[in-house]
Amino acid sequence: MPKIIRHLSDHDDQRIKRNWTFLKRNLVQFEVRDAFLDEDIWDLRDFEKIDAEKTPEEKNEMFLKLLLQSDPRAYKIFITAIQNNNLTHIAEKLQQTPIKEDPQESSGRHYCYYIW
């Protein structure tokens, strides 16, 4: 049976992408990533992918790539984790990011992918 993968909402996806450079430079992902294991969003293999990267910015980029491919709950878990770790400036920047409204988004359609 295929595994159904649902990704972040369009708005959450936009918030991450529109702040990509800021997040790559300022995120302290090792302080927040345990929440993803606790909430069953990621597993140890995902952490291995992050840790395989060489520089802090590369590790943050891998973290963000995984975040974009995660369960829709992941963004809320991410925001809560950064707030709980006194990284509120990051949460505030993300939440204040203007979002482009797309007519397709208002249709309520969400995409999912099947992995065989």
Word description of this protein:
With 116 residues, this protein is mostly helical. The termini are close together. It has eight helices and two strands, in the order βααααααααβ. The longest helix has 13 residues, at 56-68. A two-stranded antiparallel sheet has the order 1-2. It is globular and about 35 Å long. The protein has one domain (3-98): Death Domain, Fas (Orthogonal Bundle).
Please summarize what this structure is.
With 116 residues, this protein is mainly alpha-helical. It contains eight helices and two strands.
Which helices and strands appear, and what pairs or packs with what?
Blueprint: E1 3-6, H1 10-18, H2 20-26, H3 29-32, H4 34-38, H5 44-51, H6 56-68, H7 74-84, H8 88-95, E2 112-115
Antiparallel strand pairs: 1-2
List keywords for this structure.
Death Domain, Fas; 116 residues; globular; 8 helices
CATH architecture heading = Orthogonal Bundle
What proportion of the residues form beta strands (DSSP E)?
5-15%
The largest sheet is: 2 strands, antiparallel
The overall pLDDT, averaged over residues, is 86
The low-pLDDT segments are 105-111
Number of strands: 2
CATH topology: Death Domain, Fas
**Amino-to-carboxy terminus distance:** 7 Å
Name of the top-level CATH class: Mainly Alpha
Instruction: Give me the side-by-side strand order of the main sheet.
Output: 1-2
Number of helices: 8
Helix percentage range? 55-70%
Return the structural class. Answer: mainly alpha
How many structurally independent domains? 1
- The CATH homologous superfamily is termed Death Domain, Fas
Overall shape: it is globular
- As a whole number of angstroms, the C-alpha radius of gyration is 14 Å
Q: SSE string, helix = H, strand = E?
A: EHHHHHHHHE
